[in-house]
Design a protein that fits this description.
Structural class: alpha+beta
CATH architecture of the largest domain: 3-Layer(aba) Sandwich
CATH class of the largest domain: Alpha Beta
Low-confidence stretches: 406-420, 450-461, 544-549
Helix content: 40-55%
Number of helices: 25
Largest sheet: 5 strands, antiparallel
Distance between the termini: 76 Å
Oligomer: single chain
Strand order of the largest sheet: 1-2-3-4-5
Strand content: 5-15%
Number of strands: 15
CATH topology of the largest domain: Dna Topoisomerase Vi A Subunit, Chain: A, domain 2
Length: 549
């Protein structure tokens, strides 16, 4: 046995490896299972954690060996390929042997190339120096990078092309591509490489560029294929899956770096998904393995919308969902510095998907999420929460949902775009409904005037029937007629509208500060953020809004 092979196998938990394939039962110091290599009715395959070997005592079978031998026999792979899989599982992909045989299929060529990328990253050569510095700057430890099998594709269009591997398989696996001139080029160039596993097979890669050109996509994924579908893969499951199954709880983030940071903070029941590609199969898979899910969103509007979408998908599966949203910060930012990270404190900021949707997009968004509950008891709790948040009586919300489900378009969850109004449209509609002027602050008045909203127009005779021609306004007018506390509703609306414009001011001031470096913009930015926090506090506590309405 070579020194490298011995080093790979030294840290292997053979019980865990074989336990991924067979159901094991402990008897004394060893574990036993039904042998998959011969017709076996009584468990005759023994696994010794002390010796790191397995052996079948069944009549005529007598198969045995180490963990790599088991995978080789079970998967029908060469021993070298199986050893490479083991190396990646224990975070030692860089020790996998150089390719000494021809790859036979897509998954084997992926393993071979993944090992090559990993060897480049950890080679301590100038070729990958910048990649190692990048990971160090992102506070990703070498231990974590090895565990998740990270690699680096060199800054060359032909590095992989010229490695002498099966070109047909490289093309089929989308690792290289052909040009119109008949040449071949690497698909990944100058990128940190994340291997993507699905059902224990390496199906593709994600590459994060180290380049600075704006035309280059920051993240590049392997092309969609029969074996790699974004709507089915879950990044990190091959590492954290057992912890997730045991705890029955999962923490979901969007990016690979988000996941790596959480793993370093011992949140080892986390996974990463492509939020815009989260599919029904992934949600159903979650239902089979967990009871609870925490969605840790990116801290921007896009992240919030993906959080709402994921929450709805998981609620449909009957999973208990909570959402964590830190305004302006991604999970990577929050977890990057160990001394600042406190998971217990962060869990105190968890909110329900219904409340989160309501706070982000208003009543229709909250109703949209509530409508995804299939369990009547859970739906009742959701509507009660929404009633407390919005001021509408529960019975009116129930009636609205019932009417919606009777309609021809009611075959699925409510779509926010069908009914959602912009906040300024809501204010206009409210003025029409109340048939009186709505006092607003000087700040809000200036913003509304810029947008061309004239509240006086709303008092014109016939304005309400005219608005009601559009379904989104008609729906809203019907709901307004059932509001129990119209003044609270009005103040809430003005507060949310003020927050919307203040948020735009924050972005504008950040841009000005970055462009000019003028300290005046910093002071204005700080004052604006303080104002936003005060309004949010008032919204949360229910105090009056006269100071900013």
């Amino acid at each position: 046995m070579s020194t490298r092979t011995a080093e790979i196998l030294a840290d292997v938990d053979i019980v865990q490896i074989i336990g991924e394939y067979l159901t094991l039962e402990q008897r004394g110091d060893n574990y036993w299972a039904i042998c998959p290599f011969h017709p076996d009715k009584n468990p005759s395959l023994s696994v010794s954690p002390k010796l790191g070997i397995f052996h079948c005592f069944g009549g005529g079978c007598q198969v045995g060996g180490n963990a790599a031998k088991f995978i080789s026999l079970f998967e029908g792979l060469s021993y070298g390929h199986a050893l490479a899989i083991i190396a990646r599982k224990v975070g030692k992909g860089h020790l996998a042997p150089e390719v000494v045989e021809e790859a036979k299929d897509i998954f084997e060529i992926n393993e071979i190339v993944g090992n090559l990328y990993s060897q480049v990253l950890f080679s301590n050569s100038e070729l990958s120096k910048r990649a190692r510095e990048f990971l160090r700057d992102r506070h990703i430890t070498q231990e974590t990078a090895r565990l998740f099998g990270l690699g680096y594709s060199p800054n060359s269009w032909t590095w992989l092309t010229n490695r002498g591997l099966n070109r047909e398989l490289l093309l089929k696996s989308r690792l290289i591509k052909s040009t119109e001139a008949g040449h071949f080029r690497d698909f990944f160039k100058n990128r940190i490489i994340f291997p993507i596993y699905h059902q224990k097979k390496l199906v593709g890669f994600t590459g994060r560029t180290l380049g600075t050109a704006k035309k280059i996509p920051k993240y590049l994924n392997s092309g969609e294929s029969d074996w790699y579908k974004k709507r089915e893969v879950i990044y990190g499951w091959h590492i954290n899956g057992n912890n997730i199954r045991r705890s029955k709880q999962v923490v979901i983030v969007e990016g690979q770096f988000d996941l790596l940071q959480l793993h370093q903070r011992e949140i080892t029941n986390s996974i990463a998904i492509s939020g815009s590609h989260f599919g029904v199969k992934q949600a159903a898979f979650m239902k089979q393995n967990v009871r609870e899910a925490i969605i840790f969103c990116d801290g921007d509007s896009a992240g919030a919308q993906i959080g709402i979408k994921l929450g709805s998908r998981l609620l449909e599966q009957g999973i208990q969902v909570q959402i964590l949203f830190i305004d302006g910060k991604d999970p990577d930012d929050v977890a990057r510095h160990r001394h600042r990270f406190n998971w217990a404190d962060l869990q105190g900021r968890l909110v329900s998907p219904v409340k989160f949707a309501f706070e982000q997009d208003g009543l229709e968004a909250g109703l949209t999420v509530a409508s995804t509950h299939k369990n009547k008891i859970k739906l009742g709790y959701a509507l009660r929460e929404l009633s407390e948040l919005s001021g509408y009586e529960e019975r009116h919300l129930e009636h609205w949902l019932a009417e919606y489900k009777k309609s021809p378009m009611g075959s699925g969850p409510i779509k926010p775009q069908d009914t959602h109004l912009q906040l300024k449209e809501e204010l206009l509609l409210l003025a029409a409904f109340k048939q009186e002027s709505i006092p607003v602050s000087k700040y809000l008045r200036s913003k509304l005037r810029i947008d061309g909203v004239n509240l006086k127009v709303a008092k014109t005779a016939g304005f309400i029937p005219e608005l009601a021609e559009e379904s989104k306004f008609a729906t809203r007018l019907h709901l307004l007629a059932q509001v129990t506390d119209i003044e609270k509703y009005t103040n809430d609306l003005k507060a949310h509208l003020t927050l919307e414009y203040l948020g735009k001011d924050v972005k504008r001031l950040k841009r000005k500060l970055k462009e000019s470096g003028n300290i005046t913009y910093l002071k204005q930015l700080e004052d604006t953020v303080k104002r936003i926090n005060k309004i949010k506090l008032r919204l949360k506590t229910g105090r009056d809004y006269q100071s900013h309405g």
